[in-house]
């Protein structure tokens, strides 16, 4: 769309030019040729190893041509092309750009209450740094699970800031006293203080079917690609027990109905079997965290085609660094209950045949540990399973199968070139600064350590 826009502007520019500066017709056609050639950028990755979830192992000696924002050709024979950036990829592997299905780019502080004092301008600048760093780790798409909005997604789309594509939830829906209700106990007013920019961005308190319908519709109106609900207590909220159930059947079903009517789905923050089964029975499609689920719940997830989006690294990182970074004592205590069970939940889902995605849920300065999320998931999953989760399964969650998370003709050219074979050595992806030679999103190169 942007290209068309630029193109149209260019045409008008040329028309004006020809009127006032007597530019000849031949000049115009030359300009058109140049601008067309410039817009249709091409990159050839030659002699490259390729992997995506459709391939059991890496395929060697391949050639990939990217034209514009798409993969144009994949061949085991050399591809002839002109006016193309050529990248020799001997010994290196192209895999799909990684996808993180649970993050919060506006949460630049570990104590979410600190967000109250952050003006929107500063919040946005901090988010843009967080997003740039994500892309530089090879994450070309993210699903933001509360906080990011259309403005940030649009800024990325228009290349005003550098970052991954954002599939945003807008504000998470929370009941009064729920995981997203960040008021102090002494706070009497219904809404969080109007001055609390950051918090107003991350959640909306809505109770009763008509309020939750309005809240869901409002986030969809503002462009949310899915609706996030708080369906149980959580670690970062000080007052709600982790094992409570949030939202009644009527409320949760109403939210699901609104999302489905908009041709999208609901993602639920949920820890226990009780809250997870409740959410699934109301029609929720993805379970965020899910640390405390049992076998029966994993079976239910498999039978209803519900995805688990584990966020193991956030517990791992909070456990190591939370206290020194100012994580409140109540949250530290809650953390102990869930931190060691996240991997168990993944095992149960794998055994039951429920699909497992990949998420990180890191807050504040811990966001820098995003790549380590692959490491902790690899403690329970094979390297291949982790990579499938972070590419193909996450693309399914985003409803972008065949478009994202694949290396295929016609798919978006969201690709990373790894110096080595990450299937044999997934630890390559834990240090992206050193091992990612090329990072490409929409056919555009954001990092090229080779040319
Ligand atoms: Zn959560
Ligand atoms: Zn979260």
Distance between the first and last residues' Cα: 29 Å
Q: Structural class, from secondary structure content?
A: alpha/beta
Kindly estimate the percentage of residues that lie in beta strands according to DSSP: 15-25%
Radius of gyration: 23 Å
Summarize model confidence as the mean pLDDT: 90
Q: Tally the helices.
A: 15
User: Which quaternary structure do these chains form?
Assistant: single chain
Share of helix among residues?
Answer: 25-40%
Task: Write out the distinct hetero groups bound to the structure.
Answer: zinc ion
> Per the principal axes of the C-alpha atoms, what is the gross shape?
globular
- Enumerate the spans where pLDDT stays under 50 for 5 or more consecutive residues: 14-27
Number of strands: 17
| Largest beta-sheet characterization | 8 strands, mixed
């Amino acid at each position: 769309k942007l290209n068309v826009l630029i193109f149209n502007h260019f045409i008008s520019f040329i028309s004006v030019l020809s009127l006032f500066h007597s530019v000849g017709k031949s000049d115009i056609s030359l300009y058109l040729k140049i601008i067309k050639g410039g817009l249709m950028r091409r990159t050839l990755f030659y002699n490259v190893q390729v992997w995506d979830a459709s391939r059991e192992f890496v395929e060697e000696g391949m050639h990939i041509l990217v034209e514009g924002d798409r993969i144009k050709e994949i061949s085991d024979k050399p591809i002839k092309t002109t006016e193309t950036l050529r990248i020799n990829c001997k010994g290196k592997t192209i895999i799909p750009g990684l996808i993180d299905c649970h993050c919060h780019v506006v949460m630049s502080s570990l104590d979410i209450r600190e967000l109250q004092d952050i003006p929107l301008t500063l919040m946005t600048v901090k988010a843009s740094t967080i997003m740039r760093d994500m892309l530089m780790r090879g994450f070309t798409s993210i699903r933001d699970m509360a906080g990011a909005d259309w403005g940030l997604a649009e800024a990325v789309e228009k290349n005003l800031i550098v970052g991954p594509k954002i599939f945003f939830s807008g504000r998470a829906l929370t009941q009064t006293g729920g995981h997203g209700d960040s008021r102090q106990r002494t706070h009497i007013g219904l809404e969080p203080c109007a001055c609390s920019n950051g918090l107003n961005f991350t959640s909306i308190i809505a109770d009763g079917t008509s309020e939750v319908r309005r809240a869901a519709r409002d986030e969809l109106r503002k462009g949310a690609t899915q609706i996030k609900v708080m369906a149980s207590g959580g670690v970062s909220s000080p007052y709600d027990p982790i094992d409570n159930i949030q939202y009644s059947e009527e409320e949760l079903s109403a939210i699901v109905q609104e999302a489905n009517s908009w041709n999208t789905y609901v993602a639920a923050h949920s820890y226990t079997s009780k809250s997870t089964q409740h959410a699934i029975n109301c029609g929720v499609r993805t379970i965020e965290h899910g640390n405390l689920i049992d076998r029966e719940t994993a079976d239910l997830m498999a039978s209803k085609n519900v995805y688990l989006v584990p966020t193991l690294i956030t517990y791992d990182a909070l456990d190591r660094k939370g206290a020194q970074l100012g994580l409140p004592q109540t949250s530290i205590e809650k953390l102990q209950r869930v931190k060691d069970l996240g991997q168990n939940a993944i095992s149960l889902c794998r055994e039951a045949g429920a699909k497992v995605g990949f998420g990180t849920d890191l807050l504040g300065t811990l966001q820098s540990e995003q790549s380590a999320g692959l490491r902790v998931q690899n403690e329970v999953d094979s390297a291949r399973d982790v990579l499938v989760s972070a590419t193909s399964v996450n693309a399914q969650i985003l409803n972008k199968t065949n478009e994202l998370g694949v290396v295929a003709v016609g798919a978006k050219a969201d690709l990373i070139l790894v110096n080595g074979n990450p299937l044999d050595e997934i630890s390559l992806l834990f240090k992206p600064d050193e091992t990612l030679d090329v990072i490409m999103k929409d056919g555009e190169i954001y990092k090229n350590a080779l040319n």
